Amino acid sequence: MKNWRNILGLVLPLLVVAALALWPVFSGKAVDQETAFTILKAVALASSLNIILGYTGYVSFGHIVFFGVGGYTGFYLMSQQGWSIWPAMAAGGAMSGLIAFLLGKAILRLRGAYFALATIGVNQAMLALVGNLDFIGGPIGMNLNFKVYKEYGGAQEALQMAFYIMAGIALLSVIVSYAVRTSKFGLGLLAIREDEDAAEVMGVVAPNAKTWAYVLSAIIPGIVGALFFFKNGNIEPHDAFPLHTSIEFIVMVMLGGQGTVLGPVLGAVGYQGIRGYLLTSPIFKNIQLAVAGVLLLLIVLFIPFGVVGWIRNRFPQTRRVLQ
Amino acid sequence: MTSLILQVEGVTKRFGGLQALTDVTFDLPERQILGLIGPNGAGKTTLFNVINGVYTPNEGRVIFKGEDVTGSKTYDMAHRGLARTHQIVKPLNDLSVRENVMVGACFGRENHKLHKAGGIADEVLEFVGLAERADQLASSLNVAQKKRLEMARALAARPYLLLLDEVLAGLNPSEIAEMVETVQRIRDQGVTIIMIEHVMHAVMNVSDRMIVLDFGQQIAEGTPEEIQNNPKVVEAYLGDPELADKLMRQADE
Fold first, then answer.
1. E runs forming strands in chain A
2. Which residue of A28, A248, B53, B68 has the fewest C-beta atoms within 10 A of its own C-beta?
3. Does B86 touch chain A (CB under 8 A)?
4. pTM of the entire predicted model
5. CA distance B105 to B120
6. Each residue of A123-153: pLDDT tens digit?
7. Within a domain: residue B200?
8. Domains plus CATH for chain A?
9. Residue among A83, A62, A114, A107 at smallest CA distance from A250
10. Do B106 and A184 touch (CB under 8 A)?
């Protein structure tokens, strides 16, 4: 009885991801595939951010830095060193994880707003650094030679492949999120979120747990970064480290429900839906970021635990199902 | 022969100019209940915080089971077999009561896996009388229940030494009686206990030995009977009007 309910906590978000992956296959439209790619990317990034933001309670405001680091690492290896996409993605993820590890040792000592500010600083510092490194193209960035796609059967096929890899990464991010949520490690993170001092008194080694949560939340964004810029064909500092996108991912996590597996998935779908509408609407198309800001404000004021959190509180019997 | 579980040697703790603890020294044999009393601000909770690693003392040593643990981290102390409750309860609000207790079992001395920890949590919740609340959120408990939750979390770690910080405060007489009984049952299981308490009749009843702190100084130590008849203790609690007057005049000058 308890088991199938627990499994449902994993199955629900997986179904959402699977539906997104299959949608363009059935509709057969290239534009749908682009939209689905963007949403799946958002699912993967939001679910990863949720590990540090939702489970551990540390607001990583500049989390997009790991997307950029992975993107630059992967792109450099593919365009300058001739690596293929798979090892380049692995390297992107590893580099992001490594940087998160080193950063975590330094800035995870900070609590509350100070940590959030530090992560913004890290992103902006990385943006400035990358713009000044000539071997990765400085402010202009790098381009991928079109011939690279031949290895995968042509540009069209490479695009197709990138979509399925993205779907795979999104699935993986949900599974990782669920595995953390239901593990002993995850229980320690939740304890830190609720009261770090009390957690330590009970024996949770908070400095280590926080660092590993941060590393884990950085790896998938790194992989996604490498894949995204492979598909994109070029990389520039401002595309790799866009702070405003970082804020959008926080909105997604908060909208869906921080600290749950399903929340960030729904938040990503919902937010991208709203954003798609705003971008095509004549009134809102220039101020869609302002709308994101207002949305965040409304969420924090009225449903601080997001849609899933609201449902969980309103209908306590759903708590086991909506992990 | 009973061995010493805790030795506190000349512990002094200062916060800026405030002398919170001055040269506190005592030994605690296994399986005893030590009552720690004193007026508000006497340094009782500070002493707990020094023992469990929240603060590092400025001077002196804390020896736990024969090892010098002065300045260890709180989680190190938890792993070594020390557990405590907090005077101001610290429930993990958005977790269920059962999950709260599982944290204690998972990360405490015995370092259990999640599944095993669930079993221990159920046992301990039964023991402290919170079993029927297991699936509620910790934030939904009342004060008495939150105190029990603090106790359950500490017990789930299966500690050697348990520090209880005012677990009776704010409870009504029947709740106090229940809690005192629970404390005695814990000791019967072989756990050594130090309890800070203001509910005098209760702490006098359960303690084997007592220490009285006043302004960070150890002013008395002994059996409950000895403490009860100690003039210094009476003065610390009831105050000396003449002395207070003198101190006020000194402060004015």
1. 142-143, 234-235
2. A28
3. yes
4. 0.91
5. 7
6. 999 999 999 999 999 999 999 988 889 888 8
7. yes
8. 2-318 (1.10.3470)
9. A62
10. yes
